[in-house]
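Q: Can someone sanity-check these two? First one:
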Amino acid sequence: MIYPESFEYKIGFDKVRESVAKLCTTSGAAARVAEKSFSTDFNTVKSALTAVYEMTEIATGEEALPANNCGDASKVVKSLKVPGSSCSPADMLTVAKALECIEDTSRFFRSLKNEEGVSRLPELDSIASSIETFESCRREIDRILDRFGNVKDNASNELSDIRRSISSMSGTVNSAMRRVMTRAVAEGILEADASPAMRDGRLVLPVAPMNKRRLPGIVHDESASGKTIYIEPAEVVEANNRIRELQLEEKREILRILTELSNKLRPFLPQILKSIDILDHLDFIKAKALYARDSGGTLPHLSKKTELEWYHAVHPVLLKSLKSQGREIVPLDIHLSEAKRILIISGPNAGGKSVCLKTVGIVQYMAQCGMLPPVYENSHFGIFNDIFVDIGDNQSIEDDLSTYSSHLRNMKLFVGWGRPTSLVLIDEFGSGTEPQIGGAIAQAVLHKFADAQMWGVITTHYQNLKQFAEDTDGLVNGSMLYDRHLMQPLFKLSIGNPGSSFAVEIARKTGLPNDIIEEAESIVGSDYINLDKYLLDIARDRKYWENKRTEIKRKEKKLNEVIERYEEDAEGLRLKRREIIEQAKEEANKIISSSNASVERTIREIKTAQAEKQKTMEARRKLAVYKDSLSNIKDESHPLLKKAPKKKKPVKTARSSEMELPLKVGDIVKLDGKGTVGEILEINGNNATVAFGVMKTTVKTDRLKRTDARPNSSNSALTFVSSATTDSSRERQLNFSTEIDVRGMRVDEAIQAVTYFIDDAVQFSSGRVRILHGTGTGALREAIRQYLDTVSDVRSYRDEHVQFGGAGITVVELR
């Protein structure tokens, strides 16, 4: 229930309705604006808000909904329902434009569906899904009319013959008229620069009154001044009569053609009207979306129960007014709950109490009328079954009601109809009568509101109501803040403490004599005057400790995040340590197998040489070299083990020094005793040129160690990947995320980041990744998609589902 009948006028919604109606392009959509009413059904409100939210994404931009050029097509179609009826060519052209718009809209919504047939705008698609197209009807109209609404010559053979006769007869008339004019100019009847005119569809000549008897013919008209007479020469009267007859025949033939066309369209009129109605519905939603864009409307959280938690709420009419003046609006943050359902707002006059009240009313009303409310998207809205308003003066001479009587009548209705799903908005509660009894009655009514578990926002100056709100469950005090130093209101709502009226301060600011102010202070007493100051001190202290508590919570949250991140990192280190140990075991097994093979090969060589001293020493030397290569394996080769204690270097003995022979060209070596096997190509002093696979490099000879391993020529290029590179690649794969955020980057930065990201995704065999680029102007999104078109590994890409980000996220499918 909405009360009173002037509810929309009192909260300013009538101006919102007017603004939305102006944004409609069809009369049907404007009619929907006028008919739109307050809804208490959760599903209806949810669907309406979701549809408007989806429309905001396509109302403007590259993927905008096709323009609705239907005009008043529904009225024309309804007029054609009568059998034998017809319409003008212009009205038939309106129907043709409507049919074309229906086809464009149907095609547009089909383009929004993916391969599985799911639309990224499901709510709007459910509305547009029942649109039917009428290509045969549109083709028939196009055959009859041109794009300017004129009936074509070839619409029928009869019309073609008639127009050909009119053209021929017009030529005859023109020839005769030229002859008459030439003769009349020669005789001085006409001026030399005179030209024919058209009167009543007939060609006439402008003649001076003195010469009207000299030119035989029919007088059709005269100028306003009477100085020119328009005469149809006798020579062309018969020809003009024939042209007139042909024109009447043309009209009859056009009427016959349009009637026949109307008969062909008549079986399809009900379906056409239904599709036009859908277009009107979409145009109505688009108008609401455009208004939401201008007023900052968003899609909040909606609950089936009563709930009111708003952030940055503004009155849309006041927002528009202040913006036109170049001023900023002060937003409203308000939170009511089951424990604190009714807010009692106090504060100075002209401090914003009434605006706060109207803002609550219009924002809640907009939401339940299916319009996106101007709040932040993290706001929470509930569904109220009733909204009662008592704002302004409702006195009535006809009903013999004074101002206070009208307030009492409203209170009676509020108490009688109030329930837990009612929202009551009362301005200057209890005013209009003697303050003491008025305050007492207001307190008793407020008690009834609390017992009925009603919700509400009430403004007052009465001290007893502030005290009652402090002591009563379900009620909470609030105040409009005031700057005592600058002596001006801040228009900010603070919930939790009552406010002061600042009557004394405002009186001083307005220049009221000090002796009057001092006498008023002595009348009420110093305790009453200081009460406001005490309230402000309490509010200031409370705000200080609330800020402290918020800061502590923030630091606790940050500490918990650090602890959680530390535990995650520790767990990751334990997993990597386990992985490294497994790798080390595998390497150890390989080393043992290689060592056994080397020992067996040495024994075999000694046996083959039959223990010749020289060859035995050579075999032992190779075995010693291999042993040295094993002893040079470092424990700190992996990043996670760099802090482990280093092994002590073995002391070189004289015998081992003798075994280390100088390097020479052709020796097989490893760099620092590990890594890829290479062959020395050239030695220049302390530098050596070594071939590692297909790559040549110059290194110091003291970094090279002989090895018995042989380079594998078949895949030397592939084996030139060090263990560090493999570990780095493995670590990147473990830390790889299938989502990248490039919002806030320039286009060139974003393209570079996406390039690396796609390369890693392809390397690590990711099937699907997401790129967060935001909506904005669409330039970043377009640049990224142009780049994706050039990548062969990209199979397809699309917008994310509207519930998970919509056009602000691109989902990429990889091959």
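And here is the second, same format, sequence then tokens:
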Amino acid sequence: MPVYVEVSVNVPQVTSLFHYHLPADLEGRIAPGHLVEVPFGKQQVHGVVLRLLEVPQVAETRPVSDLVDRQVVLTESQIQLSQYLAESTLAPLSACINLMLPPGLAQLSDTLYELNESDALESAEETNQGDASREKIPDKTADQDLSPLQSDLIALLRRRGSLRGRQIDQVFRRRNWRAAASVLIRRRLLTSHSVLPPPTVQVKSARTACLAVPPEAAKARKSELGRPGTKAFQRRQAVIDCLIGSSSPMLVNWVYAESGANAGDLRYLAERNLIQLGESEVWRDPLETLDFIPTSPPPLTQDQQNAWMELLEAIHQTLDGKPSKPFLLHGVTGSGKTEIYLHAVAEVLQAGKQAIVLVPEISLTPQTVRRFLARFPGQVGLMHSRLSPGERYDTWLRARQGQLSVVVGPRSALFTPFPDLGLIVVDESHDQSYYQDTNLPYYHASDAAVAYARQVGALCLQGSATPDLVHYYHAKQEKWRYLQLPARILAHDQAAKSQMERLRALNKGKFAYRPLEQQAQSLELPPIQVVDMRAELKAGNRSIFSQPLKTALADTLAHEQQAILFLNRRGTATYIFCRDCGFSLKCPRCDLPLVFHSAAAASRSRQASTGLICHHCNYQRSLPRTCPRCRSTRIRQYGTGTEKVETEVQSLFPNARTLRWDYETTRQKDAHDAILSHFGAHRADILIGTQMLAKGLDLPLVTLVGVILADVGLNLPDFRSAERTFQVLTQVAGRAGRSPLGGQVILQTFDPDHYVIQNASHHDYEGFYRQELDYRRHLGYPPFTKLVRLEFRHHNFEQAEAAARELSAQIHTWIRTEGRRATTVIGPAPCFFARINNLFRWQIILRSPDPVSLLRERRLGDWRIEVNPPSLL
């Protein structure tokens, strides 16, 4: 009786599942979760086995070709999670499964292109009148019937040999080379066939050495080491002594380092059966060089204790198999949320389960990892996209084998294959970076964490100082459980004391330091001063710094403390404008203003790009001397970015040490950690940056935060723009005053009476929530409804518009046919960013209690579908 399996194949845009049978040699070796190779049409593809079947749904099945990995690559709970994601986001199941696998393990089928040498030579003979020299084939003049692109393709294959389609994509970006290849194939100048590349990641091995005889015998056989007194004899003797002192095989690199020996010495000893050479697996651990000091838990404050006791009760319930609602931990900045996370992780680890801790940004990962490593040494792994494929694979493998108990990282860490997950923590759960919008599936890790915890019987704990308005609404409606930490904890006492004593010795003391036992258990949130920049202009101040901010910066530097300057714009100037004709220089592919990056700023931050750059598609060009439209020389740079802020700071305070923290300065691996470590060690006085600054930084010497322009993003035509602005202002303000040194925030704005600015200046989340909720209720936006965003992209504007209008008419027909009176349609209309990377964008918004159900099982072709996206821009 044959065994049948259901497989999700790794083929883009394929949504169906397929049934295969197992050949005799694979029976009993394959289970749900295994990665297999199967035939699919005329090609071989990878796929994941979802379940075993007794009876297939097709009359004839094809056999599974091979087993790629002997161990299952997906747990049963991960299969369920991928099915949930496919169902809730309307994405192909294979795309959801790929989220769970480390890069390089499951491969996509590709096409291999090769020169057809015999026909190519024949063509060359005809064209070159008898000259059959192969050297003339790549020359464009070798065949006048070839187009430039066809000639380029032949030249590439001639130069580099056979190439896969995705390799050619990297060479001919934005060129339709496949059409050219099809013509060459018909003319028999090229051949092509399907190939399935093998996995590009595997276990890493390293050579080892150990004694092949007992230590006494090795000592007695000194005469076999060579002529006594020579350097070779001494090196070989050192190898023997080194291995005698080791209870297990040693890596040969260590042997070389300790003995001074070389590979020839080891071969010499192995040939005489004195040592044995072998191989062992070694882990590529990204945390191997991360310094940390083991710590024990500090005593909890009363607020923390109250929250912890309620959370502890829920953890014990889940350990007993009783489901729990998700928890929302609402704590002001610096209130000690991370300590609650650490207590919760310790509790589930003690019960033999594992924990996942999500952070919103790679930039936050090193700081968070250190705290967890210090509490759980040897049990913590790191997972994020900046790691090498080998590091990600090894972390994934160690978690699968039960060698790790905690994994920390951004949204991809959610898919760690833990066998018995007990806790999922989502720190800064409001953050938009938890949403994936670059590749299928388009999902929110916060929502996926809630679903995953429910599936596996784990507890989900989401924390934030500025909770997502929908999450807070759920907590108010008691769909989630609510915990509150309303006060900032007094922390960093020793750092503050050291600073005070040092400054007192220099006669620079500003604050009267009191020992910790004489202070209250909590700190007040820093006062926020709102500065009306309209009044500054009227007073004749045209600087990007208001007078209060200049004074505060000078005072902070005088007392050798630190400041953070925040502006959520990169670059030196945000647009280029002609003062004569009004022409604005835009990206030719995106219709968006090009941003100017100065050479001086690039030199200071060691960034590669200067001149005009598009922040969406990376188009670059030099700054023109004259207006491209009217040839006027009065073309100027306007607007302010982080580079300009840094330049202005250095002009005002030449002796100040500055660091910039934005996309341009953090492209290299470990750049985030390097900048944060540099600033944390007080090797810089002022940190200037974008929204990265607003996320979880805990820096005791920062006593001033200056917001250069609070209005950035506030008036964008998106229903969440007010919420995003309030969140980022509140979060960045929370970087100041986290120690007994105290602190202050100066918030510069051109709209000081806006309710977002007013509530942020008073740290009033509840006030903002009430006012914003009224707007959402009136306009019919979440949490009172759900959204689906349909987006169509095309190189031709008219075709994009026609496709949008056609689908809109079809949707209205579906709504009428099914009687969906609660469903409304917004659009079709061009997106706010109407063209990105030469693609015109049109969108349709569906708004209803359940808009997904209207689209399920409907084929929408090239339409991009996003369920409850965080932005409609």
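A (reply): Looked at the second one. Residues 155 and 746 are 60 Å apart (CA to CA). The longest strand covers residues 824-836.
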